[in-house]
Structures are given as C-alpha cells and as structure tokens.
Hints:
Layout: E1 4-13, E2 19-25, E3 28-33, H1 52-65, E4 70-77
Parallel strand pairs: 1-4
Antiparallel strand pairs: 1-2, 2-3
Amino acid sequence: MSEVVEVKVLSGEGWEGLRRERLLIDGIEAMNAGPLSECPEDAILERDLYGPSDFAGILEAFLREHQGKKVRFIYEEDTDE
C-alpha cells in the first residue's frame, strides 16, 4: 500500500465547448462538475454540482481513509472529453 495519496484534477472542454472538471483520488473518480447547458431549465443547485455539505463529507471520508499519508496534487488537461 502506497504512503502517498494521488489527488488529480482533470480539466477540459466537453462536446459543447464548455469547461468540465473531474477529481480523482488514487485513480477513482470522487467528483465531477460540468456545465448545465444541456438542460438549462433544470439548472437547479446540486443537479449536476456538489454542494458544500457533499464536499465536507468527501473531505471527511478522505481524511479518515488516508490518515497520516502524504498527498500529491496533480492538475492536468483531460484528454478523455
């Protein structure tokens, strides 16, 4: 088991030409955010986006699971879009 946790933020453009981001923790997607352009009439808070309570829960679980490990942050362009 590695003593370094890899937290990666992938940023890129979707099919509609707007920015999207994905957060991966040790290669597993934990969160993604994209534009609400495909259905703007349904664009309400937390439809496609996480809210503060979701983020706090993810952070709490992360700290519990990876207690005492070093964290490496990586930011790169997403080529999967």
